[in-house]
Amino acid sequence: MSDGGVSQAGYPMAKATANADLITLWLHDKSPNSRRGYQRDVRQFLMVIGDLPLSEVTLNDLQAFSNALGARGYKVSTISRKLAAVKSLLTFGHRVGVLRVNVGSLVKLPKGKEKLAERILSQSQVRAMIELTKNLRDLVLIRFLYATGARVSEVCVLKWRDVQELSEGRAQVSLLGKGGKTRVVVFSAEMWELLRQLRGGAGLNAPLFKSRKQGGHLDPSQVNRIVRKAAERAGLEAKVSPHWLRHSHASHSLERGAPLQLVKESLGHSHIAMTERYLHARPDESSALYLGV
User: Fold this and answer.
1) pTM score, whole prediction
2) In order of start, what are the domains of the chain with their CATH numbers?
């Protein structure tokens, strides 16, 4: 294969006669949650460029999009995310040979203040969220999110068949992560016993976490509400999301001596650098501690 996704015969690896065709190809293998987010971000870009085909997009158009987002008051982190979505689309289009050049490669994502440290709960805060939650399903959900470090999108599709008991009372869960990659996370016997209490007589194909109103799986918005209310009961002022429990899982496990590579694999990070961020987010020491003030 030559660069740009063109076959040896000189033909593109995919066909797309309109912007919508290329976007559909790009979104095909992404999770439903990712598709919704990417669609929102790319839709905003299309509003800026109008009827212009993606094959004719220039650096000027991408900079105009960035400026428009800034003028609308978006945070730097949000602008960076939206630009990253457009860059991903253009990179994909170039890779499969639909776009002759990858203009997105010229765009550097703006960097704002690193807020990871602000989104890591203390161990006592997590305990308070768990201890003050009396509803069994919500209690097990919060503990499970923290114990496994799973993403909301991963938890909301789990069935009982995805969980298997191991030796010594422990159990494991198979999680379908980003890019369709499956990973297995082992958790404690105590967590498994709570899950068994929650299950009752549910069959293998029943949702692990069931919506009482709809009867099917909990959706991400419901999980967000459950976690936010638990944080409020624990007296936390910040708007805590389920992802904070994932951050806390990573930080706390590293603090307690878990190997960096193991945490990377448990979280499903594609690069070790993503996991290393947690080492720097909550440092144990700094030069400030050596001063006499």
Assistant:
1) 0.73
2) 19-106 (1.10.150.130), 117-281 (1.10.443.10)
